[in-house]
Amino acid sequence: MSSRSATAVRRRIVAGSLVLLSIVLITIYFREPVGGGLHGVQSTGATVLRPFEVGATRVAQPFRDGYGWFSGVLHAKSENGRLRREVDVYSAQAIQNANAVDQNAQLKSLLNYVSAPQFPKGYDYVATDVVTRPPAELAQQIGIAAGSSSGIRINDPVVNADGLVGKVTKVASHGAEVTLLTDPDMMVTAVDRATQATGLVGTGQSRGTLIVDRVSKADLVKPGDLIVTQGFHYKKLSSIFPAGIPVGTVSSASVNDTDLYWQVQVNPRVDFGSSLQSVLVLVPKTRKH
Amino acid sequence: MRLLVEPAKVGALVFVAAILQVSIFSTFQILGGTPDVVLLTLMGIALLRGSIYGASAGFAAGLLVDTANLGTLGVTSLLLTIAGYWIGRYGETTGRDRAHAPYVSVAVATILVQFGALFLHYMLGDPVSARVVLLDALPAKVGLNLLLTLPVYALTRWVLGLGTVPERATEVQLLG
Description:
Chain A is α+β, with helices and mostly antiparallel strands. In chain A, 36% of the residues lie in helices and 27% in strands. Among the domains of chain A are: 3-31; 123-183 and 274-284, Thrombin, subunit H, CATH 2.40.10; 188-268, Thrombin, subunit H (Beta Barrel). Chain A has helices at residues 3-31, 37-111, and strands spanning 123-132, 141-144, 157-159, 164-172, 175-180, 188-192, 198-203, 210-213, 226-229, 233-234, 237-238, 246-254, 263-268, 278-284. In chain B, 72% of the residues lie in helices and 0% in strands. The mean pLDDT of chain B is 87. At the A-B interface, helix 1, helix 2 and strand 5 of A face helix 1, helix 3, helix 4, helix 5 and helix 6 of B.
């Protein structure tokens, strides 16, 4: 055999073996349970890689901050005007809310009312960095730097200062995967805080938007209403998300004769883009480690 | 010695590119697309070192990316192995010594990898939208990758050239 054809054979053997190995990996990983051997190896590998990812994120932070500063300056004037209008509205609301809280406390004490665990009172939290992101067009998951060693479990709710981010879907010892609210498989029971109309929040048709599905025509939804998690309890079933976590603001709401439900579009409060750099994982206080 | 140094340099390049991709570049979404420095680095390695290095580097890079993202192991490896092999073969045959080879490789590989990723995720039952992947993200991704092709290729060539002793002339040609 000439050296040229020997090289060609070697080349094909290497490429063929690697393709075959990839297919074998996919098959085993796809078929084995979450606690399987390959998942364990991946979890260990992710733990080993985590310090490098955190280091790279820290090195890039000044550049990100610089980009954020320039971007902020460009939008500062319009944002300032909007925020001033919002401050006026929220100041009035804050006074009303303070009165309502006092009244609520008085009424509860009169009734000897027993409350269910509520957000954020019934939860501890684990504050952690976002360290990895797959391409957003293919996956709506992010990687965080804390895992089971911090008490995090699958299905723990994830929030940030703006509202609901998603839930934990995979856990390694020093890392976890969080599926964002914008994932097509995510549905969250939610309620319109102004009108108490309930529905299911899921991802919308266009990128980065949400919808509220299954809102009965008998209920009322208005643009500008705040949508929060409902946190239902029904017999042994209960939502994994506690009640009262902000989800978004209704941007449009319409209904016609042929529809069974309202068509509700929601602007999420959380920016799921590159500004999402840290999150809080909610861990129930009742959990025994 | 060269037998050890070359794979070490390729391994270091792949490792750095994978870490930078999952922790930094994936966060930069411009016009709906994100640059893919792993694919760009792979292009440089495959064009400069051939299809065997391309396929091997692609497999390793995919494994690192899937491990870091806690994604389905093997998916990115499969795509990048094929991409690395193809780019390597292109470099070994028609693309040799052509200035446009890096750009052609990146444009074609980006499109094929994106189609392949969509197909694989669809086959695995992941919720992906063809409209988002192909219409919203792909044009911007191709554009961003093409913009970064030259610097990443130059950097890859520089790293692969580090510590390489130039071959001595074995015969002298007399001119004039």
